[in-house]
Amino acid sequence: MSELLSVSEAQRFILKDFKPTEPQKLPLEQASRRILAEDIFSSLDLPPFANSSMDGFAVHASDIGAATPEHSVILKVVGDIPAGKHQQIKVAHGQAVRIMTGAPLPVDCDAVVPVENTRFDTPAPDQELPATVEILKPARPGDSIRPVGQDVRQGDLIMSRGTRLGPQQVGMLAMLGASRVAVHRPPRIAVFSSGDELVTAGAPLEPGKIYDSNTLMLVSLVEKYWAEVINLGIAPDDIAAIRRLLDRAVSEKVDLILSSAGVSVGSYDYIRSLVQADGEITLWRVNMRPGKPLTYGSYQHIPFIGLPGNPVSAYMGFEIFVRPVLMKLQGRLSWQRTMIQVEIDEAIESDGRESYLRAIVRNQEGKWIGRLTGHQGSGNLRSLVQANALLLIPSEVKSLPVGARVEGWLLDE
Ligand code: AMP
Ligand code: MG
Questions:
Q1: Are 311 and 215 in contact (CB under 8 A)?
Q2: Is the CB of 235 within 6 Å of ligand 1?
């Protein structure tokens, strides 16, 4: 047993073989959720011009230092600047300009008084502007003004290669005027299951058969981590049928072939020998629970990961080994999860292997408290559906008392 690789050794062993997919320059509207393949520097100052952050009146701050509602300062209104209009208006002392949020500030003015701090008569029907405005509160120079480059300076590094383009990043790129960006191609992953017992939902369940859960679970996992999936369905425990699926995966030019089941020590577990016949198996079995029979190698030069058949094991194998591969293929520079410290409120037994247990955790005054979701058998997918977190029991640990602290992560980060 001790000659088996640990989880982290196996992760490193697998990851070393993968590199990011090639970059492609895409229109920004197609780049959402992709990973940047270039550093983004700003070619602009943002804001590009000093502008008002309020609807109000642009003034000389020194004119209105003593303004109160009782002793208002009356200024002559000499112009109007809506957003989107650029106009040079001379504003002398004793004068003001009506200005809207986002409109360029007249060069003479050094403050904006929000409309709420002013009083003025409704303009006459033939007039667009009130003739005067009463200022009810003082303003300091700079008040309600967004200066040039307040947010971004031309030449600033705004985002680095490896960043995922979420909604806020897409918005930022649009704000910078970037119409095309270099992003990595999404990896293509072929998925199939194997087993004579498997039946697809919708068909009747004959004695001895079970519905195939892994294919669609793995399809869904691949999509969850932003990769493209080629669903090859189910192969029976038959050498020729499995080879046909492997060959289809090759013809689909995928970046990774992912299978479930048929990689253990059963009499009909053909996948390893098939892959080996036309490629190699470089890793088989990891010192973990669940998910020990994990298999890694390549088939006709395409990387191959064989996940165990038990549904919880297949899920865990994906989260622990396939997810980092997908991240690296997409061009992410790191894929560490956000770990939480969980205090267990029941004793936990383990078998000395690094274990990933399904748990319900709740946050109690800033502290995570957790307990397991029932029977942790590797076929019991319900325990995973009931869980909102996974707990990591390190290797060598055989039992943990109530109140012990372990690391874990939330399933829906
Ligand atoms: P195996 O690795 O082929 O020995 O399968 C281990 C266990 O996982 C057996 O109980 C299988 O019936 C079950 N199993 C294998 N593939 C699937 C699948 N696609 N969906 C649900 N259960 C599966
Ligand atoms: Mg089987």
A1: no
A2: no
Q: Is the CB of 310 under 6 A from ligand 1?
A: yes
DSSP 5-27: BPHHHHHHHHHTT--PPPEEEEE
Tell me if 138 sits within 8 A of 69, measured CB to CB. no
Task: Ligand 1, residue 262: give the atom nearest the CA.
Answer: 3
| Per-run averaged pLDDT (10 residues), the chain, 413 residues | 86 98 98 98 98 98 97 98 94 98 98 98 88 98 98 98 98 98 98 98 97 98 98 97 98 98 92 97 96 96 98 98 98 96 97 97 98 94 97 97 98 84
What letter represents residue 77's amino acid? V
Q: Which atom in ligand 1 lies closest to the alpha carbon of residue 234?
A: 19
11 φ, ψ (degrees, to nearest 5): -60, -50
With a 6 Å cutoff on the Cβ, whether 307 touches ligand 1 is no
Tokens of 396: 């060598």
CB 212 within 8 A of CB 200: yes
Nearest atom in ligand 1 to 310's CA: 8
What CA–CA distance (Å, rounded) separates 286 from 279? Answer: 20
Q: Rounded to an integer, what distance in angstroms lies between the CA atom of residue 51 and that of residue 44?
A: 15
